[in-house]
Amino acid sequence: MNRKTTRYHLLAVGAASSLVLGACGGSGSDADAGDGDSASGGGKDITLTVATFNEFGYEELVKEYMDLNPGIKVEHVKADTADNARAALRNSLGANSGAADIEAIEVDWVTEFKQYPDKFADLSDPEVEGRWIDWKTEAVTLEDGKLIGYGTDIGPEAVCYRADLFEAAGLPTDREEVAELLGDTWEDYFAVGREFIKNSDAAWYDSAGALWQGMINQVDYAYEDADGNVVATTNPEVRSLYDQVLKASVDDELSAGLGQWSADWTSSFQEDEFATMLCPGWMLGVISGNAEGVEGWDVANTFPGGGGNWGGSYLTVPAQGKNIEEATKLAAWLTAPEQQIKAFEAKGTFPSQVEALSSETLLTSTNPFFNDAPTGQIFADRAEAVTMQPHKGPKYFEINSAMNDAITRVDVDGTDDADSSWAKFVEFVESLG
Amino acid sequence: MGAATTAPPATSAVPVPPTPHRGRRGRLARLDVTVSPYLYIAPFFVLFLVTGLFPLLYTGYVALHDWDQIMGRGEFVGLTNFVDILTGRGFWRALANTVSIFLLSSVPQIAAALLIAALLDRNLRARTFWRMGVLLPYVVAPVAVALIFNNLFADRFGLVNLLLETVGLEPVRWHSDRLASHIAIATMVNFRWTGYNALILLAAMQAIPKDLYEQAALDGANAWRSFWSVTVPMLRPTIIFVVITSTIGGLQIFDEPKMYDQYGRGGADQQWQTLTIYLYELGWTRADFGAASAVAVLLFLIIVTFGILNFLLTRRIAHDDGGRR
C-alpha cells in the first residue's frame, strides 16, 4: 500500500466510525420524537388506528365511517392470531407506547387486563347503557363502575352432530328430536352417548378438553373465590366435574381422545371419528372448513347444563392514546347494533347487542353446510339461555391451562390416570403461590 | 497483538537519518498498520455493545427484581428468583429435555453433515445443483417445516404412523411419549441445519491441498483411512466452529418445540418443554419477567459451559490423528 492511500484510509475509516458512533448516540435521544404530530393540522384531521385479530368483519365498516366523518382517517390493522394480538398489546401496555387507538381484546384476556385499569380509558356513557346483554357488559365493568370495553360478538354454544352417524346407530336425526333426546344436563348427554357407542364405531364427542371448556364456564367461582383466594384444588365442584368428565371420556369410552386444534383433530373431521361436538357460533366455520365434502352435519338447539358461552370480544381504548375522545366515538359506532349486523353478514360474528339479537337479518339466516339449519334463530335462543358469566380471577388463564393439561394427560396421551394427573395439577397450582 | 518492531536491524551498514517529514510519514504508516484494523471492526463492536451487551446486562438487572411484564419493576429481591427456579421442578425438567433434544440433533447432524460434505467433495455431475440442493431445507420457513412435520408425526393420522402400520409395526406415540417427541423435534432441527453445516464443512474441505491425498494414497491408505487421517484433522478448526455454533443454537431451540403441537407449551406433561419455552411461559404467560430473566441468565451460563466443554473435547478428538502409523 503506498503512502498516499494510507492517509485516505485513515480518513475514511475515521469518518465511517464516527458516523456509526454518531448514529448510535443519536438514536437514543430522538426515540420519543416519533409520535405523529396529529394536532399540527390545526383542523380536525386525525388518524385513528384499530387493531383486531382473526375476522371481525370491519373492512367495509371502516370505509363507511370515513365517508361519514371527513377529516378522520381510520387505519385497520389485523393480527393473524389472537395470541399474537395479545402479546403485542401486552408489550405496548408495558412500554406505555405503541398501542393502537382502539385495541380489540378476547373475552379470555379480560381478567388479566382488568388488573391494569389505569391502562384503559373509561368508556362508560349513558348513551350506550343497556346496549349489550347484561353479562357481556358485567365482565368488563370494574367495581367502581368504570367500563373498559364495548362488546363486539359472543359465542353462545349449541351441540353440532352428525345426522348420518345418528341414523346408523338407530337414533333420531331431526334436529328438534335430537335436541329433545340430548336433554339438558351433562348426565343426560353422557347417557345418550353410552347408548350411541353400543351401536357405532364412532366415539360420542371429540375430546374431554372440549367438554371441560363447556362445563367450567357454567361454574360461577371455579378456581378463585370471591375474595381472590385460589381454591382450584379444594373446590369440590371442580373435582367432581373433573371426575365426571374423565369417567365419561375414558372409562365409558365416549371421547375420541383427539386434543382440540391438534393436527389429528383437524384430520379427524374427514373420518367418522365422533358424532357430536359442543359448538359456539364461530365453530361452525371451523367445522365446515375441516369437514369439507362430509355430509350429515347439523345443529341441535340445546346445550347440556343450561346455556354456555365460549369466546367473543370487546373493543378497548388504551389510555396512552392521543385521541381518546374520537377513538371512543368510533368504538361506540363500530359496536352499535346496526354495524354489528353488517359484521355478522360479512364474517358471521354473532352479535352481543340486545337489539341486534332480534334483527330480521339475523333471525332468518341459515347455514347450507349444516343441512340449512336456521342458525341465526338457534344461536339467538342459545344466547338467551346464557344467564351468567363465570367469575374469572387473574390466575384463571394459567390454572385453566394446567387443568387442560391434566385432562389431556388422561384423555389424549394416556400417560396418567385421573388421580395421578390430578396430583400433578395440585402440585402446579401450589407452585403458583 | 504484538506490533512488529520497526527498529532498523543493528547490522544495517548505512543508517538513514530520519527527516522529520519522513518521520511523520513513517508514523502515519505505522499507525495505519496498527490502528486501521481496529477501526474497521469497530462498527461491529459498537453495534454489539448496543444490541447485545447492554440487553445482556439489563437482563441480569431484571433478574434481581420482582418484575411484572406490564407494571414494570417491583422490589429488589436479590437471588430469590434464582432460588425459586433452581428449587422448582420445571427448570430441571426443561434442562433435561433441552440436553436430550440437543444431543439427539447435534450429534447425528454433524456426523451426517461431514458425510454429505465428503460426498459433495467428489467429482459429481451437476455439482452445483447438488450443493444448492442440500441448502434448500434451510431456506424453507420454519413455520412451514413445522406444519409439514406436524402432519407427519401426528399420533393418529400421521403419515409416519400410517407407514409403520402398513409395514405391520406398532404406531409410535409421537406426542405423549417423551423420548419419541424428542426424536421428532430433533428430526425437524436436523432437516433444517444439516445441509447448512455440510456446506460449511465442504468449503473447508476444498481448501485441503490435494497432494496430501496423493501422499496418503502412495502410502497405501484407502479412502476411509485418508478421510480419517487427512480430511478430519485438516478440518479441525471448522469442525470446532460447527460444533460450537450448533451447540449455541441447539440449546436455544424454540421454533420447533413451540410449533410441535397446537398449544406451544411443550406438551401436557412438559414432555418436550425446552428451556426457551419454559422461559417464554414464565415471561409471557405468567407475566413474571423477573423469573424469566433469571432463566435467561442461567441459560447463558449453561451455554457458555457447554461451549467450553465442547471446545476442549473437539480439540482432543481432532488432535488424535487417526491412531498409530
TrEMBL record, chain A:
Gene3D superfamilies associated with the record: Periplasmic binding protein-like II (3.40.190.10)
Protein origin, superkingdom: Bacteria
This protein's UniProt keywords: Signal
Secretion signal span: 1-23
Organism: Ornithinimicrobium humiphilum
Name recorded for this polypeptide: Cellobiose-binding protein
Presence of the UniProt keyword Signal in the record: yes
TrEMBL record, chain B:
Comp. bias intervals (Low complexity): 1-14
Entry keyword set: Cell membrane, Membrane, Transmembrane, Transmembrane helix, Transport
Residues annotated as transmembrane: 38-64, 101-120, 132-153, 179-204, 234-254, 289-313
Primary localization: membrane
BP term (GO), one: transmembrane transport
Annotated region described as Disordered, given as residue ranges: 1-23
Coiled coil: none
Pfam families in alphabetical order: BPD_transp_1
InterPro entries: ABC_transporter_permease, MetI-like, MetI-like_sf
Topology class, membrane: Multi-pass membrane protein
Membrane as UniProt keyword: yes
Keyword field contains NADP: no
Gene3D superfamilies given in the database record: MetI-like
Gene Ontology, cellular component aspect: plasma membrane
Ranges where the ABC transmembrane type-1 domain occurs: 95-310
Protein family according to the UniProt entry: Belongs to the binding-protein-dependent transport system permease family.
Family matches, as PANTHER family: ABC TRANSPORTER PERMEASE PROTEIN, INNER MEMBRANE ABC TRANSPORTER PERMEASE PROTEIN YCJO
Protein name from the UniProt record: Cellobiose ABC transporter membrane protein
Origin species: Ornithinimicrobium humiphilum
